[in-house]
Amino acid sequence: LPPAMASLEMRERPQIIYALVIRSQKVVLVQHTTMTGNFQQVMLQQVLPKLSLHVEFQSYTWGDYAFHYITDEEQELWYVCMAEKRMGRRIPFAFLTAVQEIFRCYSRDQVQSAIAHGMEKDFRPSLEQLMDKYNSPEADRTAMMLEKVQSINDNLMEGLEKILERREKIELLVTRSQTLSSSAGSFAREAGRVRRNVWWKNVRMLFALVGLVLLIIFIVAVSSCGITF
């Protein structure tokens, strides 16, 4: 356990211990903690230099603890919380998202003009209320239910996509079948025309051969009879 966190004791249920909203990576607008400790010092000296405004969400581990944050690049804000590492990421990020949603009720001018800790009076009660909510056992059950609902929704969407994909394949097969059927009809008509032409050609050739044979027989017969022309 890092010296800065040595005074913290692990609880039966992992907790979100510390949360704050920071502007421009150095101005703490509001913060709240459920325990005593040098959290802000650790945050400002060890964690903040690692945060990037261009990364939407990220986590850093610090001994048995983890720092999670999400960003608002437009207002240059970081929503950060510290939680026990064994809590995972799902609940801390759900908590930070809820904090961000409520904090958005403040205008850009209010946020940019606020001095350090200048929003403690207005927003700290909301921050405390949200931390209590997401530290309760009910929050974990709710998160699990939401995760299951999301999983079911994802499975339904995946099934729907497969059905639509299968339908597209069937329609493609029908189109190809119709094209082949049309091509087969054209081929049959062309084959019939060629067959008739060949038949008439053979008939004409047969008549020509028969005529030639008859002519030869006639000439031979006439010559045998001594008939001259």
TrEMBL record:
GO terms for cellular component: cytoplasm; endomembrane system; membrane. Residues 141-201 form the V-SNARE coiled-coil homology domain. It is found in: Endomembrane system. Its main location: membrane. Residues 20-127 form the Longin domain. Keywords: Coiled coil, Membrane, Protein transport, Transmembrane, Transmembrane helix, Transport. One of its GO terms (biological process) is protein transport. It holds the Pfam family Longin. Belongs to the synaptobrevin family. PANTHER family: SNARE PROTEINS, VESICLE-ASSOCIATED MEMBRANE PROTEIN 9. This is V-SNARE coiled-coil homology domain-containing protein. It comes from Alexandrium monilatum.
